[in-house]
Amino acid sequence: MNVGVFLVFLSGLLFLLPVQSTLLYSLSPWGLRPDLCLIVTCLTGLWGGPVRGVVVGVVLGVGQDIFSAGSLWLNLLTKAGTGFLAGHFAKNFSNMESPLVFFPIAALSFVWGVVFWLSSRTGTGAMLHGAVTLLLPQAALDGLVAVGFNWVIARWMAAGPAREDWAGRFPGGGVR
Questions:
Q1: Is residue 176 included in any domain, yes or no?
Q2: pLDDT tens digits, residue range 67-116?
Q3: What is the distance between the alpha carbons of residues 152 and 146, in angstroms, rounded to a whole number?
Q4: Residue 133 structural domain
Q5: 6-18: per-residue pLDDT in tens?
Q6: Does residue 120 contact residue 134 with C-beta atoms inside 8 Å?
Q7: Measured between alpha carbons, how far is 24 from 38 in angstroms, rounded to an integer?
Q8: Does residue 99 fall inside a structural domain?
Q9: Residue 69 belongs to a domain with what CATH number?
Q10: Backbone phi, then psi, for 114, in 5-degree steps?
Q11: N or C: less crowded end of the chain, CB within 10 Å?
């Protein structure tokens, strides 16, 4: 593995954290903003397999836990779980370019949203109202942004190097 490529990959992942917390904060329609770390973790799991998904999820989860005021280790566990589950979802897709990747990503976003909601709030009435007014739109936004990113990745893969060549350039190398 080339150390330079690894450092570029790692710095790109860590660049997501300030972009998500600063730039997207001011570009949030109706108070919703896509969870870029979740989306990148999901797409890494879908395109690179569960091991790469977990590695990216751990890196981004630790970064979010360090720089956020939330519960310690919750981002680490949810992002690593997201990468792992997304990598296993990929085995069920015959066409990675399909817009159907919306459903597993939106489902994971909703499930982790419920986990975060329950860890910070109590009461079932507020939970039901929050699920309808905040968590479902957030999951839909994450799914739509992920479909857009997935479309760009699929076009780049079709025009650029073969999947095996691309996957071999990143930590872990080779195709799952």
A1: no
A2: 877 777 899 999 999 999 999 988 777 677 778 889 999 999 999 988 88
A3: 10
A4: 3-162
A5: 776 777 777 888 8
A6: no
A7: 14
A8: yes
A9: 1.10.1760
A10: -65, -40
A11: N
